[in-house]
Amino acid sequence: MNNLGEKNNFHMTPDEFRRFGREMVDWIADYYEDIEQFPVLSQVQPGEIRARLPAAPPQNGESFDEIIADIEKLILPGITHWQSPNFFAFFPANASGPSILAELLSAGLGVQGMSWVTSPACTELETHVLDWLAEMLGLPEKFMSNTKGGGVIQDTASNATLSALLAARERSTNFSSNENGIENKLIVYASTQTHSSIDKAVKIAGMGKNNLRLIDVDEQFSMRPELLSRQIEADREAGLIPSFVCATVGTTSSNAIDPVREIGEICVEEGLWLHVDAAMSGTAALVPEFRYINDGLEFADSYCFNPHKWMFTNFDCDCFYVADRASLIKTFSVLPEYLRNKATESGAVIDYRDWHIQLGRRFRSLKLWFVIRYYGVEGLRHHIRQHVELAQQFAEWVDKDPNFQLAVSPPLNLVCFRHTGGDEVNQQLLDSLNQSGKMYLTHTNLDEHFTLRMCVGQTYTEEKHVKQAWDLLQTTAENIL
Question: Which CATH architecture best describes the domain 101-370?
Answer without folding.
Answer: 3-Layer(aba) Sandwich (3.40)
